[in-house]
Amino acid sequence: MARRVKYSAAAAGMLLALAASGAAPAQDVASVTLAKDTRGSPAERAAAMLAQMTQAEKLSLLEGFLGNDFAPAKFTMPQGARPGSAGYVPGITRLGIPPQWQTDAGLGVATQGGAGPKRGATALPSGPATAATFDPALAYEGGRMIGREARAFGFNVMLGGGVNLLREPRNGRNFEYAGEDPLLAGTIVGAEIAGVQSNRVIDTVKHYALNDQETVRDTGNFIIDEAAFRMSDLLAFELAIERGRPGSAMCAYNLVDGLHACESPFLLTDVLRRDWGWQGYVMSDWGAAHSTAASANAGLDQESGFGLQTDAWYGRDKLEAALAKGEVDHARIDLMVTRILTAMFAHGLIDDPVTDTTGPTDFAPNRAVAQRDAEAGIVLLKNDASMLPLAATAKRIAVIGGHADKGVIAGGGSSLVYPDGENAVPGLKPTGWPGPVVYYPSSPVEELRQLLPDTRIDYADGEDPAAAAKLAKSADLVIVFGTQWAAESIDVQLHLDGEQDALIERVAAANRRTVVVLETGGPVLTPWAAKVPAIVEAWYPGRMGGAAIANVLVGKVNPSGHLPMTFPKSLGQLPYPGEPRKKEATYTEGATVGYKWFDAKALQPQFPFGHGLSYTSFTYGDLDVTRTDGSVAATLTVTNTGKRAGADAVQLYVSPPPGSGWEAPKRLAGFAKVELAPGESKRIGIAVDPRLLSIWDTASPGWSRVPGAYTFTAAQSSRDLGPSVKIDLPAAKLPPQWRP
Ligand code: BGC
Asked: Measured between alpha carbons, how far is 349 from 344 in angstroms, rounded to an integer?
């Protein structure tokens, strides 16, 4: 889309001049020694470094270049940038400050589009899949794995950490995020960020904030009541930042309440720094800066992606002019540089520099991480009469559609991870941005054939529905794959691509023993749900997706994923049923997002938030909720009452006393993933974050809890509620700076 092609000759000239000027700086032994002196805190070391810097050196850290081979044909990568990277900020050799080599994104090392060379990397399953695990430990492992690859490929800043809430089920980037609930999304994304950063690289939380759809993402002005904002999208960011401690945050393309997100003092200073006490640096999304002084004074530290837009707002000429006019003062520039340097010291970029490693990578252990994540994130949505797991006795299985004979689909845009191996289905449209459409070479059909050697497994691509129905009729059982391709810069329809709904109907009519496997970016409508006995949501399952799907289908893995988002029954159930929001829109639903909306409006979803079946069953007992020193915690006993080992995502919901001012009848207050052998019981504890028992008080800023009886309920989903306990809680007030 537009943002990938804007480029001017003037920009090219300036870019080359700057790159050339930084090419051969003098080496200053005393200053380089300073970089190597590990005494002092990151902030102290940054201050000492700052004192050595010339103004030109300071300004050079504030502007990032495009480092990739994305669209602009005339684009010349700055000297020192690494091929296929998202961005590049030159280092200062004289001072021993390395460049910042930036790579996308949250699902793995994304070596970008365009015609240039692609470096294969290991793709995790998509964000909703990891959120569906309800398992921060797995999210951490995934982050650790992709951060390890980033470092091995010579990158020291990863642009992962997407935590925008799923407000708009048609958002083309939902597959990069972690669903609709602030607690779940913030916890999972925070864990992933911490995992990435465990490799001594910086990770980024993004896209701050309200970039909840791609329609009008550059120009849309989104308005929301502050209290609602604090209790929804901002809370997701707050939790992700608290748990992940990212070195950087990326401000979004869109406007928030009339100001571009990258020049919003409310977002970048009041909330992020004053209230949350975060110490990192803010970078703009690629081309999302729109001013020099206004952005700098609002709290934007680094402009990214120069080379995409025609103007570099943080180019040296502009910053010097702003300084000369007194629009920006020297202390502000020092602050911006200090934040960047502090993060670089804190996250090992200077002490433990990345090297440009171009050698082969051992992908086997990394693929194992991706597979575990995919397996734990697959959600069994429906399983009438125990259709699944597949019986080893089935003689003939027909598999239809979704290119399941070749691989599994991935989402498009800057987060697309090219596989180590070929695109299994090349040539699908769009082949250019935000494509190409990529299928990872992990074929469900091939994996099933390996797992079920005595079963005949036939495949039909579904292009000819009559032939597909004929094949379905001849089989003992049918597995239809339904796909939805989603990508950055576009929003999608709330249904499977093309004619797949009709295909499923037709196949199910031919053979009622039909299992549907979905590979989607987010929720889709499932108008055929009542006509098929089993449905599996596999999301974009990543590099090992075929193996993960097959393992779940045959029961080698017992499914334990739970939906991180509501699947609506119809478009009409959404707060914005018509189409995604246009230019200027108020988020009238406020914090009433996802299941909260469905609860508040008493709507019956197709599949509720938190829903996910297993091949075994669980019960909850002896729920106990206690309050000690202001903190609330629940304990309960979880029992596996079935015949298979399995994992459960225990959810704890809380409902407020009447008159609480809450946005919805209940909120997710905590969760725990627990593994149990058949017949086994475990006593587990779930601590409740006090912010989730409060509302944001704008009149006297902070979190405020009304006194009264709160109901805590252990549940298998937001609509499958188990035992509950009521306890009285007194009024309480927490300052905006409150931390757990
Ligand atoms: C995306 C970011 C990404 C950046 C660099 C932007 O278009 O919104 O998520 O990190 O490009 O590729």
From this structure: 5
